[in-house]
Write a structure and sequence with these properties.
seven-stranded mixed sheet; Quinone Oxidoreductase, Chain A, domain 1; alpha/beta; six-stranded parallel sheet; Rossmann fold; about 30% helix
Length: about 325
Amino acid sequence: MRAMRAETFSGYEGLKLIELPKPAVTNGKVLVRITAAGVTPLDHTILSGKFHGSKPPLVLGNEGAGVVEDGGGTDFPVGSRVMFFGVYGAFEDGTYREWVSVRKEDLCLIPDNVDDVSGAGIPVAYLTAQVVLTLAGFRAGKTVLAPAIGGSIGNAVTQLAHALDAKHAISSTTNHAKAEQAKALGFNEVIDTSSEKLGDGVRRITSGYGADIVVDGVGGEVLSEALGVLALGGSLTTLGYSASRKTTIDVTNLIVPQASIRGLNVFAQPKAAITSAWNVIVSLLKAGAIKPIVAKTFPLTEAADALRYLIEGRPFGRVVLTI
């Protein structure tokens, strides 16, 4: 089978098209013919040699969609369309290939109203978003801020919060054109930080209240600024560092509102939390209350170009490989 494998962790040029044996179906695993694979910032982090625990050679891709060919039993019959996420592409070979042997517990049936390309871009972003909201104590009427609209986490958190009846589902962007694009796509509470500071925007939208829950997938200065908008008893969860791994914080932004900050590693979440998140996500997908946004697709052989487009082009929505 064809696979795009990182032979070295040396950047885009490390990805090579190779032939690998088709995986065998072992006990507890399901053979899935991959039709689409999500491209994520984590793939780039790994390919750049900046992720702990990953070792080359490695087929990238920790989420995907496809069709069950063997081993799914009655839960996932042959021919079922499925999507999945796991340690694939980080600690074992991932979805940038034609077949993957997937742990049964990682699979989720794709709703009939969702195509495979969209399905491939759902697991990482929406599972992470729903798990974070649950851990942060989200309930209807809360105000949520997820900076960086257009990115996978910004889009997923904002969509989920809105669908679950948040009072405010706020995001931000440094790009005026992207702010306009967000509004055209139905994101009505987006702060354009090219003309307004993040904190000023949040206070304007919330009439001075602030945010009960902040989900930061960016890191760096955005995290520092977001801490300053927390409402009384609010919380910030950090789970990404595309801007920077380091920042400086004002501790009074935690002390005065008696707020909290925590980190999240989605790989480390218990199975029960993932199952619960899937249940919410699938229900909302079936109802059309949330919808993944795909910016562009690339064929498998152009995986390096897809990653470059994601990281350097900063598109609005997901980048997906079609296989």
